[in-house]
Amino acid sequence: MFAVDSSTAVSAATPSLAKAVEVSVADEMFAAFIKSSGAEVIREHGVMSGEVVGLEVCRVVPGESGDSRIEIGVGVHDRETFQLVHGQTATIESLRRVVTEVAARRVVGAQVHPLNQLARERILRHVVCQSPNLVGAQSLSSAQPPSRRRNLKEIVPCVASGISQTGQKVVVIFSVGIDPDVVAFGADAREQINSNAELVFACPTRDIVPAVTRLAEMLNKPARFVGVDILGAQAQPQV
Q1: Which pLDDT tens digit goes with each residue over 142-201?
Q2: Across the strands, what pairs with 72?
Q3: Quick one: which of 44, 69, 177, 178 is 20 to 30 A from 204 by CA?
Q4: Which domain holds residue 83?
């Protein structure tokens, strides 16, 4: 969050920020399994999961005996249903089938389906990380957000970090919909990742409004908005 004086928005301490928690060594052993299925390995606040075009399809969870195991499914209820049908032992073949099904639903031109209506800000991140030039970067990868996401249905911005086309560190915040709180979220993310990095907000062009862009410009280190249409249209820097 930040405090606003007459000319700038000054970063303030945010007590709600989650402390950094690393993924355990036991959980890290599942990274190769997730990657071999075709899913992207995501690490956020001590939790390892696998995403397909931004949608979580598996998660590493504590086992009943204190060890770690991987559960397959989109969200906690889907993971529970999958276990009832297939048992608690996840196979690479099962995960690959889910990856293939989800990937087919989250592509340009796909018909509206529940699988492409969830986590749309993460679709945007996936697209931009593959084409970082859309936001003026040369490389980007998924990064941990400043606070935890409670569930897959919660609409929360997501984060990537990397290198800009000018060779500087950059933090990019992805959101869908007009969100007055996105600037505070972005300021917290930059502070957590690299306080000296450039900060960029990427969202559909229709969601860029003057009131929010003014807040970004009032940060101690001003940020900019870039319009990117979901699933790959042209980017239009906001001026």
Answers
A1: 999 999 999 989 999 999 999 999 999 999 999 999 999 999 999 999 999 999 999 999
A2: 58
A3: 44
A4: 25-116
- Domain check: are 12 and 124 in the same one? yes
Which alpha helices (H) appear in the chain, and where do they start and end? 25-28, 31-36, 76-86, 92-105, 114-117, 120-130, 182-193, 210-217
The answer to whether 86 touches 94, Cβ cutoff 8 Å, is yes
Give the span between the Cα atoms of 78 and 57, in whole angstroms. Answer: 9
Q: Are 50 and 41 in contact (CB under 8 A)?
A: yes
Are 157 and 174 in contact by the 8 Å Cβ rule? The answer is: yes
Q: Distance between CA 169 and CA 136 in Å, rounded? A: 12
Judgement on whether residues 77 and 126 belong to the same structural domain of the protein: no
Of the residues 59, 89, 116, the one at which a domain ends: 116
Whole-number Å distance between alpha carbons of 185 and 25: 29
Sequence-ordered list of residues with C-beta below 8 angstroms from that of 168, at least 6 positions apart, any chain = 197, 198
Could you identify the residue written with the tokens 């908005």? 225
- Are residues 77 and 175 both part of a single domain? no
**For strand 198-203 and strand 169-174, is the pairing parallel, antiparallel, or unpaired?**
parallel
Same domain, yes or no: 130 and 167: yes
CA atoms of 41 and 30, how far apart (whole Å): 9
Q: Are residues 129 and 163 in the same domain?
A: yes
At 237, the pLDDT band (50, 70, 90 cuts) reads very low
Q: How many residues does the chain have?
A: 239
The domain boundary, picked from 116, 143, 176, lies at 116
Type and span of the H or E element at 69: strand 68-72
